[in-house]
TrEMBL record:
<keyword id="KW-0560">Oxidoreductase</keyword>
<keyword id="KW-0349">Heme</keyword>
<dbReference type="InterPro" id="IPR001128">
    <property type="entry name" value="Cyt_P450"/>
</dbReference>
<dbReference type="GO" id="GO:0004497">
    <property type="term" value="F:monooxygenase activity"/>
</dbReference>
<dbReference type="GO" id="GO:0020037">
    <property type="term" value="F:heme binding"/>
</dbReference>
<dbReference type="InterPro" id="IPR002401">
    <property type="entry name" value="Cyt_P450_E_grp-I"/>
</dbReference>
<protein>
    <submittedName>
        <fullName>Cytochrome P450</fullName>
    </submittedName>
</protein>
<dbReference type="InterPro" id="IPR050121">
    <property type="entry name" value="Cytochrome_P450_monoxygenase"/>
</dbReference>
<dbReference type="Pfam" id="PF00067">
    <property type="entry name" value="p450"/>
</dbReference>
<dbReference type="GO" id="GO:0016705">
    <property type="term" value="F:oxidoreductase activity, acting on paired donors, with incorporation or reduction of molecular oxygen"/>
</dbReference>
<keyword id="KW-0479">Metal-binding</keyword>
<comment type="similarity">
    <text>Belongs to the cytochrome P450 family.</text>
</comment>
<keyword id="KW-0408">Iron</keyword>
<dbReference type="GO" id="GO:0005506">
    <property type="term" value="F:iron ion binding"/>
</dbReference>
<dbReference type="InterPro" id="IPR036396">
    <property type="entry name" value="Cyt_P450_sf"/>
</dbReference>
Length: 447
């Protein structure tokens, strides 16, 4: 039974207490967005203020909880099936879809490279709807069913690599392997061929750029003209970020070109991808190559470290709570066949799905800094007013279920390692738009 309680809507970036009234807020001269005069929290503010991880985490908990309640942000709510995808007005009547009422603030555009027009960054509702129409079919549960074997093959390879690393090094860095896995999955499903990170088995410029993408996004949002400034101001941080931005463009372009090459090589056997409709729209000249590239950029970033950071925190948190691990292992042993289970079976496991929900609640990978504009007059939301805006929700949940189940089946003795000085400090969350472990590693041993 849903509770009908009123919660204040987050203002564009506020965590201020109480109902947010635009009248009390300032107006961003650049974007026209209303913003609160005080109590502002964004990852970029954290960056400016040099907030330490516990302080950020404290704020993120507030933001994460309230944002999840408001249905605008992540946490178990965002990635769960919503009881309603409609906004509720003060008196509880159904209104327009929530995403159309609480429009994206200018911050979304500042996070991405200048001029990028993707489903993530656009603020124009018609254009956003157009992109969503082209993309949501590929992300539906029925369409993802056909992609399950590719997802499973990547999960299996990640676990095999972890096992090898444990044998050689004494521990496996699950942060690294989950990142490689999620990157390869989004590559294969979107462009027809994986980025082959799991085969290469080592970090390269591409994966390092992806790891740093949230920091660069936060930097860009703080200094929107850093690409320009970096030409004249030889500050290493700007130079590095500008170079990484150019590489991001190039990587997205190459990924789209790679798909085109695959199509040309065997036109009779073109695999369905998450972008099938988008590629078709480009062929029909309804979409430009630049728009395809921009959406590719969005998928590459949004579809990789969100999932891999969540999996890293899931493994870490479960290993640190033996009673949780025991209950999870019991469920996996009792209710899953030893071989040949699929997503349908995994969906039926309440404890596994509870562990995933709880990880998303506590370590929501994108639990802050995605501000929406409060309509004039302010709004009160009811708890029932939940919304799903993450287009990758079904894919993310499929990956999380499969990878978590296979990991704990493969390594029932998994424990956090103290090898090479690994400690809880490494797992302190840092938040530059996306939440990730401060040490950029999570060593786990299982023997
Ligand atoms: C655990 C994993 C994930 C988390 C926690 C997560 C979280 C989020 C959040 C908080 C938003 C912003 C919602 C908003 O402000 O409108 C979002 C949007 C988005 N996500 Fe995810 N996400 C995850 C996985 C994925 C995956 C696997 C993809 C695959 C491509 C993806 C693609 C996107 C895109 C394209 C958007 C923009 C959608 C729109 O505005 O219409 N996400 N996600």
């Amino acid at each position: 039974m849903l509770q009908r309680r009123a919660y204040p809507v987050l203002s564009t970036t506020s965590i201020g207490i109480g109902r947010v009234r635009p009248g009390r807020c300032g107006v961003d001269p650049a974007t026209g967005d209303r913003r609160p005069a005080a109590g502002v929290f964004t990852a970029t503010n954290a960056l400016r203020l040099g907030m330490d991880a516990p302080a950020i985490r404290a704020v993120v908990h507030v933001v994460g909880t309230r944002a999840a309640v408001a249905g605008l942000c992540v946490g178990s709510r965002l990635l769960s099936s919503p009881p309603s995808s409609h906004g509720m007005s003060d008196n509880g009547r159904r209104g327009a879809p929530i995403a159309n009422v609480y429009l994206k603030a200018g911050f979304y555009q500042k996070l991405v490279p200048p001029g990028v027009s993707s489903v993530f960054s656009v603020r124009d509702t018609d254009l956003h709807r157009r992109y969503r129409r082209l993309l949501s079919g590929g992300m539906s549960e029925s369409s993802l069913k056909s992609m399950y074997p590719a997802i499973e093959a990547n999960v299996n390879l990640a676990i095999q690599n972890m096992r090898e690393e444990m044998e050689k090094r004494g521990a496996a860095d699950v942060f690294k392997w989950w990142m490689f896995m999620a990157t390869d999955i989004i590559g294969e499903l979107t462009f027809g061929e994986s980025f082959r990170m799991l085969e290469q088995k080592k970090k390269n410029q591409y994966s390092l750029d992806l790891e740093n993408a949230p920091f660069i996004g936060a930097l860009r949002a703080t200094f929107p003209s850093f690409l320009y400034i970096s030409k004249f101001l030889p500050l290493p941080v700007f130079k590095r970020a500008a170079a990484a931005t150019m590489r991001h463009y190039r990587d997205a372009e190459e990924s789209v070109a790679r798909h085109r090459r695959l199509e040309l090589a065997d036109p009779t056997n073109v695999k369905a991808t998450l972008f099938s409709k988008l590629y078709k729209a480009e062929d029909d000249e309804q979409l430009s190559l630049k728009e395809t590239r921009d959406n590719a950029l969005a998928y590459i970033v949004a579809g990789s470290d969100t999932t891999s950071n969540t999996l890293t925190y899931l493994v870490w948190a479960v290993c640190r709570h033996p009673h949780v691990k025991k209950a999870l292992l019991n469920e996996l042993a009792s209710f899953l066949p030893s071989h040949g289970f699929g997503d349908q079976e995994l969906k039926q496991l309440p404890y596994l799905n509870g562990v995933i929900d709880e990880t998303l609640r506590i370590y929501g990978a994108a639990a802050s800094a995605l501000p929406r504009v409060v309509p004039p007059g302010g709004r009160l939301l009811l708890v029932a007013a939940l919304a799903v805006t993450c287009i990758g929700v079904h894919l993310a949940r499929m990956e999380l279920r499969l990878a978590a189940a296979k990991f704990f089946r493969a390594f029932p003795e998994a424990n956090i390692s103290g090898l090479e000085g690994m400690s809880d400090e490494d797992m302190e969350p840092t938040m530059y738009f996306l939440l990730s472990p401060k040490g950029k590693r999570c060593l786990v041993q299982a023997y």
